[in-house]
From TrEMBL, chains A, B, C:
Its EC number is 3.2.1.23. Residues 593-647 form the Beta-galactosidase C-terminal domain. It comes from the Bacteria. InterPro entries: Beta_galactosidase_C, Beta_galactosidase_Trimer, Class_I_gatase-like, GH, Glyco_hydro_42, Glyco_hydro_42_N, Glyco_hydro_b. It comes from Kribbella italica. This is Beta-galactosidase. It catalyses: Hydrolysis of terminal non-reducing beta-D-galactose residues in beta-D-galactosides. GO terms for molecular function: beta-galactosidase activity; metal ion binding.
Length: 649, 649, 649
């Protein structure tokens, strides 16, 4: 398909056939062209072991085909039916406390259990056989949101196998895990356990490796299904929907190579502008993972944002702007979970394209309007986002910083990266989120927020980039441990001390701390000794009064900034703008609340302009607004909550 | 007995025989006439399996009989002895995580375990045989505070049997539980489990049915004992003490028909006036359950209110006013847990009629005074409370709203009902708490607070009441789901949209929201579309600015108000007073802090007047104050903390 | 050794032999003379069952001997190796919920498991055989921080055996545990269980006895190892390091008699002056336990204080002052955990004498300076602290007050004792922390803070002390229960009512309450009736308005004060100073923030003066400052953060 996808998860098994016909009619009205079908339909497809009921799905596929809606057909392996769990209790997952979970929700399986893997492959094969060649079939959607872990004996055994492969011999594992501490030395592989409930602090490298292991184990499970489906339909894309969260042991940057189309689910968690920032961050991540290929927003919520204890209802226009923020960054469309709101079940309050109140609502009218908007943006697919800034993102630093006993429990890797992203996003500058080992030469400025874990090669690669004229801005608690989560020797920030021209003698975790510039630091401060850098800002008051807080070091042809605390938003934005300007980046100077994403190709630019604010905003622009179809000359007036996509040649 | 009961739980097994004699002497001094004996005496009565020791109880019963104290004799089945648990580990309860609990507290049994049921029946029979005909015996008290649940395999098996009876076939269960969602379709009954610990969100209808099941299962256990005791003493009342709380899976409104005397335990939980409001609410509930028959306050605390982390000591007079608040609403007396404070054990700090400091204390003097007061009120038993307002209470809505994933975790059914009750109580207007299917024709105003779950017939019955001229005031999140906890189709508030003349397009959960009238809404707001109703108040500010917040609809001969948010106390009181006046109710206009309960019969009225405030209060009154024995003419001066019961013919 | 120890835990198994040589050189530079070796080295010493690897330890011991560093050699039994747990899963500990913990941390053993006890004795014997006679060996360090509990069946069986010994027969146990309440009467020993997860409130005496049992069981485990080591080296001291905390079921006062040198670990938990108060308290406790013998600070942190969620870095000089505060109170030196900061493992962020940043740091310079300071203080070992005040400390009251259902959850025994200690400490007056049964005749004032549990003999002994002319100050919730945790009869404060000349009719737990004097009470108040005492302060406002809050009673030749609430610091300090003066104690009148500890012997005094404040302080002093080597005449100027030890003859 050359245009943009519009649609979402469609679960016809919850409805009667008469509703299916209404559904297809409404989909046509809304311009829906892709439906993800069957994600949780295992017990409907195979109600008893080996007895398949494809009739209803045949009917639905035919109806959709007739209605011009393509199908992203899912394997339903994220929720085995109750009959499976009854027959294979050893395939039910076990938590760290040893509690074997019960079925009756979803994701009640251990991906290491042989019976589960066999059954998963079985249902995938049955679907492949049945629907290969169906006119509606456009894509395969394996499983749902891989990320479920288990601590059972199957998992323990697979973990040991994985460790054997990683470390080769026990001596190397004992060294990497620092098992000499607390008498944890292993004398045989059989002694090793997952990080189950234990008496006191958990070994941090064991915990880190358990996440690494699960990422690989789940990837293997995905690949088994992919291989089978590929066998039936060599030309159709196969993918799975990535879910992002602190609990997810999946290295999406590595998985990206194994999916034909990077697909993400995104559910922001803030009632205010934070939702828009998170949306931009998620889309920038997906864009990086896709590596220049298109990607797809596979799931979002039509009507609400889950904010702590309540579902905040999306204000008029917000669903549209969220969708455009993804499309602007390369999403091949906007999909939603789910098409029609469930009447019962655990997610009956999850919002939907067709709400409980039906199609005669503001919500559905906005859906129809969005459906009309998207085809006008098909041409933007030709362009690419130009990113002058890179902010390093590394899932291993995230996992390593989830250790139970850091010097401060308030250290939060994701928050540190998002704080940097927030400032660059607000400044309207394009940003990539590469890993630490990526080629950085195309960027003017590379931000390295709290990159706690750094292998030697990655540190060297970043240093070479600066040596060759690059600019980096590194923030506190970076370069601290190697890939075994062991402190780099010779003082902090081990891997970056030379590059930054500083030595950090001691950490000083704090609640907050003042800076001479008037800014505020939070959570963290450091006793920074200069070994070549110059001072940009100093601590004011407290035990570090007068000592360096922010520094800058000339290194080779380039520049390396260091920020030894977590700056408040205003001070951080000021500093990052200073660093961007110093790196030669032009700042567009947007009104507050206005988001800009520029895509370009062969001299044509497409500016996505989204006004998230409560007030009308005026931005300079020239060209054709693809959404309104009107010419823009000199300036564009964006109403509160409005949007435009301006093409200029 | 025609007078009022006074006394409480008496646990002589904690004391030596010399104390028993003191006890009876002190009971006589205090006017105690009923003692609940043996509630937790199983291990004292049957110290080893089959070996009974009734001697001590014989002695105690004789002493009490001689002292003129009647006995409410308990079966001790709420706490099986350690020897039972050692012999029947499968009868120990299992929590949702699969932890089998240990004995050493109380309530360590699963009522589904055959061994437990058999043992319970056994000890009940032994007691019946022994004490039928004893002169002290006046009543049977089965068990204690039914409410213990279990997730073990016995419970699973009983749950499945109950489900088979409820649904008949699996197809109907799969439909009711919306098992098509998340692939939960059951293909055999054996696959069904209690809602044990699982991976993610629990099926809300499964959770609701588990509570319904436990209510029925515990009722069956009660009935088994009742049948046996009835066999021995066909003329003596048999009851059990109801406990009320979010954790209790008991539908007391249904159980009420199975007890000869509705009996409740009540322990309020607020240091301030909240304790008095809760007391009135509990007594109004019990009065409704009793359905015009007398009922009994079986347990309350003499000396303290458990407020979060501490026992707040009841101020002088407060125990008396709490007791009178129950008697005013039809309690056949005032009983307490317990007679004499324990020296040891888990509840040694539970207050008692005879405190640790003994009878020479203010506390015991107030007990003696209360004991003298109650006989003067015997005549009030002839009167009935006249309730012009009904506030609907439905335990199924409570249970359904305990689902883990509502649009707002702050939605609280009990709080919503109590908020309505608080305003009517403060206004001094009599109120009933019937279920949704009750006959409402006798009420001038029916309040329907957040009645989330409504079967079709109940909704129809409420509509008919209004059609015929009744007034209702419905509050937000009412009429949303049917008895399977599935959203009513065709938009919110499904079951009540026609009655109210509104359609709610979307919910807007919030922290708080302003109203045009100056009032404040909390937790919730709604996008209300008028389909016939007129606007009483509007939202001010926010995304719903200017749209309807409170409406009124003429329906048939009656009126239906709708409140789409949770009003603050002041705004709610103002609105409810407006609605009461509109419904033709006269408001007595009481001073703040003064509670009024009127009972009447054949032209005679008894006004219970309780001054909970810190200041003297003057109320209009004429007649005889039964407590002081003085005539009241025109007005009554109630000292701070004082009370009067004025009879007027 | 006649001088002071300096050094700490040294874990060479984490490092390569080349680092060992650097270590010894750095130890010499710092003046280190004692290293605790092998605490967690079991898996390094016995990597497979029965295969010992002593080579590396031989080498380390030789290197240390050559470097002049003595060794406190540890048995590594606090962390059995993984191979042990694999072979003996029944020796892994089980928590109250029945979760069997996994190895992979430390302390993953049940001390009641026969296999564990056998293995512990085995490794102790192997070490004794190997290193008895080694020139470096100076002391044995058994295990680490005894305190691990378990709820498994081994533990249950040992608990029953201990109960049989304590109570002799079941009747006595049933009485002591008040099992008549809630039908908990035991008819055979086999029915008794540890306090595992149960349905509702736990029996408080069962919980108390479980702690008493564990204290004795762990002591037996210690004694087994001690006996073996004693066999090899009859003349070397054997000890273990005491850890202090609410979770620790160890009666250190009783254990003290079984160690040759009382040794404590101390980690304060406050960023402010609270850390210094806690340090003084810990050292005063250790001093009392040691009973006039020297004792040893075995572990402290060189660089940080663990404050809730973060490691607060110790300011310059603070490590030194903490160390001197211990030495001042009789510690035979200052040891640390650990020598060199780990590169990995669960405690890689624990501070160390040699930090990650190496020896070229402020931290290590302060270590070197402290190493030079200590030898100058060797002579102070001759002196003893003179304590005119005793504050009673009783671990059984602490345990009993950890019951789940006191009248207020805010009652905190440790906080009550520390509040008293804080005032006396701030006043610069020496204080002992004896148990309730101690001989009190040498004290001018005895403070009895919230001594909830008091056996009859202890109460009588305190009364005799006052009768003979002693002064006591008792605070609220004292004298309430006996050793079975059963309320003393005849009203509160049962055990002390006669002594204090008051009767407490009722408790009034509160948030806070005002006093007539202007002070503030917190958490607690009481309805105090005078039976001989005079009133010192009254409650102001609230239900107790005007009734006695603080009283004083003449009793025999002495005086007994009673404080029926928890006074705020200022009011408490004022009252305690009044009581100290009345008892004939002279108050030194120190500047705020200055700590004074006086040791004396034969007419010589050594005044340890520590200025914890931010400002210079001037104190009167005459003599020789041992630290600076200068003469002090009339007054001493202490810089902010400074210290002096002034000898005067």
């Amino acid at each position: 398909m050359t245009g943009l996808y519009f649609g979402g998860d469609y679960n016809p098994e919850q409805w009667t056939p008469d509703v299916w016909k209404d559904d297809v009619a409404l989909m046509r009205r809304a311009g829906v062209n892709l439906a993800t079908v069957g994600v949780f339909a295992w017990s409907s497809l195979e109600p008893e072991p080996g007895r398949y009921e494809f009739g209803w799905l045949d009917q639905v596929m035919d109806l959709l085909a007739d209605g011009g809606v393509q199908v992203d057909l899912a394997t339903p392996t994220a929720s085995p039916p109750p009959w499976f769990s009854l027959r294979h209790p050893d395939a039910l997952p076990v938590n760290a406390d040893g509690v074997r979970l019960s079925h009756g929700s979803r994701d009640t399986y251990c991906a290491c259990a042989p019976a589960y893997r066999e059954a998963a492959v079985g249902i995938a094969r049955a679907l492949g056989e049945r629907y290969a060649g169906h006119p509606a079939l456009a894509m395969w959607h394996v499983h749902n949101e891989y990320g479920t872990v288990c601590h059972c004996d199957h998992a323990a055994s697979s973990f040991r196998r994985w460790l054997r492969e990683r470390y080769g011999n026990l001596g190397r594992l004992n060294e990497a895990w620092t098992t000499a501490f607390w008498s944890q030395g292993y004398s045989s592989w059989e002694e090793i356990r997952p990080p189950r409930a234990t008496q006191y602090l958990v070994n941090p490298t064991q915990a880190l490796d358990f996440r690494r292991f699960w990422s690989d184990e789940l990837l293997a499970a995905y690949q088994e299904q992919k291989a089978i489906l590929r066998g039936f339909t060599p030309d159709l894309p196969v993918t799975t929907n990535f879910v992002f969260g602190a609990w997810v042991p999946v290295d999406h940057a590595r998985w990206a190579a194994e999916v034909d189309l990077v697909a993400i689910d995104h559910y922001p968690g803030d009632a205010g502008l934070g939702a828009e920032e998170q949306t931009a961050f998620a889309a920038d991540l997906a864009r990086w993972w896709a590596g220049g290929r298109p990607w797809l927003l596979m799931e979002q919520a039509a009507g609400s944002v889950n904010v702590e204890t309540r579902l905040h209802t999306k204000e008029p226009g917000r669903m549209t702007r969220h969708s455009l923020a993804h499309v602007a960054r390369g999403s091949k469309g906007a999909l939603f979970f789910q098409w029609r709101a469930s009447r019962g079940g655990a997610e009956m309050w999850h919002s939907a394209l067709v709400p409980h109140s039906g199609p005669g609502t503001r919500r559905f009218r906005e859906v129809v309007a969005l459906g009309k908007m998207l085809p006008r943006l098909a041409e933007t697919g030709a362009g690419a986002v130009r990113a002058e800034v890179a902010i390093l993102w590394d899932v291993e630093s995230w996992w390593a910083m989830q250790a139970t006993h850091l010097p401060s429990a308030e250290l939060d890797y994701l928050a540190a990266v998002q704080a940097a992203h927030r400032q660059v996003w607000a400044a309207g500058v394009g940003v990539d989120l590469p890993g630490p080992a990526a080629d950085l030469t195309s960027y003017r400025l590379v931000v390295v927020p709290s990159l706690y874990l750094v292998p030697a090669e990655a540190a060297a690669s970043i240093a070479r980039y600066v040596e060759g004229g690059g600019h980096v801005l590194v923030t506190c608690f970076s370069g601290i441990v190697n890939e075994d989560a062991q402190v780099w020797p010779d003082g902090y920030p081990g891997a970056f001390a030379g590059l930054l021209g500083v030595q950090v003698e001691e950490f000083h975790p704090v609640a907050e701390v003042r800076l001479a510039s008037g800014g505020q630091g939070r959570v963290w401060s450091e006793d920074v000794q200069l070994t070549g850098a110059e001072v940009i800002d100093r601590y004011a008051g407290g035990v570090l009064d007068g000592s360096p807080a922010v520094t800058r070091n000339a290194y080779g042809e380039g520049v390396a900034w260091y920020v030894s605390t977590q700056l408040d938003d205003e001070a951080y934005r000021t500093l990052l703008e200073q660093a961007m300007r110093a790196a030669g980046i032009e700042l567009p100077g947007l009104p507050a609340g206005v988001e800009l994403v520029r895509r370009e190709a062969n001299g044509t630019t497409w500016d996505f302009l989204l006004n998230h604010g409560d007030a009308e905003a005026v931005v300079p622009a020239d060209g054709l607004d693809l959404l309104s179809g009107t010419e823009v000359r000199g300036q564009l007036v964006l109403p509160a909550g409005g949007q435009a996509v301006v093409r200029s040649d």
